Amino acid sequence: MKTLKFLFFGLFLFLSTSANAQIGVNVNINIPVWGPADTHDAHFYYIPDIQVYYDVPNAVFIYPYKERWIRCKRLPAHYSHFDLHSGCKVILPYRGHSPYDYFHTHKSKYPKGYIVKGQKPYKSKGNNGHHYGEGKHESKHGHHGKHGKGH
């Protein structure tokens, strides 16, 4: 009986350790090469100069388009003037799914030209950066939040 208890305890310990290891590996897997270096468990960035969000775990931008919020892997061409590598990214302490519900607060708290002191880009060994060239509006999930419709 002691051997059986020991076996179950060992199995439980192994499975819980494996689950924790898997979670630890996935935390920063989608950090873009242009993201801030101090991105540990960020879920969203707000990019003040273009008033766009970036969903880190899902690796998509969230931007306003025709009274809705669109989720897309790439930004459309009208954002191509913005340099994601050198532009400011604010790490939001938000954990929901719709950061744009607080768009007016973010827009006011982090206006265009906002600077995060000492922000350095995240350095990655692979090229998991995202381009901001022409992209299709891939998602039907975006919608306008209760606090705004974009611009």
UniProtKB/TrEMBL annotation:
It comes from the Bacteria. Residues 138-151 have a biased composition (Basic residues). Keywords: Signal. Residues 125-151 are annotated as: Disordered. Residues 1-21 form the signal peptide. The keyword Signal applies. This is Uncharacterized protein.
